Amino acid sequence: MKNKTPLIAALALAGLAGSVQAVELSYSGYMRAGTGVNARGGTQVCYGLAGADTKWRLGNECDYVIEPNFVAKLAEYEGSSWHVHVMPSVYHAWGPAGSNEPDTLTTRFGQIYAYGDKISQLAGGKVWAGRRFYNRLQLGINDQFLENNDGNGAGIEDMNFGMAKVSVAFMMDPNNSANENRFALPIRATGIKTLPNGELSVYLTPSAQLKSTNQVTGVEPAKQPKGIALGLYQTFNGALGGNWIVGFKHDKTGDVKNTRLVTQYGTTIGAATGLDVIAQYRVNDAPANGGNKWFSLGARTDTHLSGPFRFLFEAGHDQVKPDAGDTRNMTKFTAALAASAGKEPGSRPTVRLFVTHAVWNEAARLTLGGRTQEVFGDKKAGTSLGIQAETWW
Question: Would the pTM of this model clear 0.70, i.e. be above it?
Answer without folding.
Answer: yes
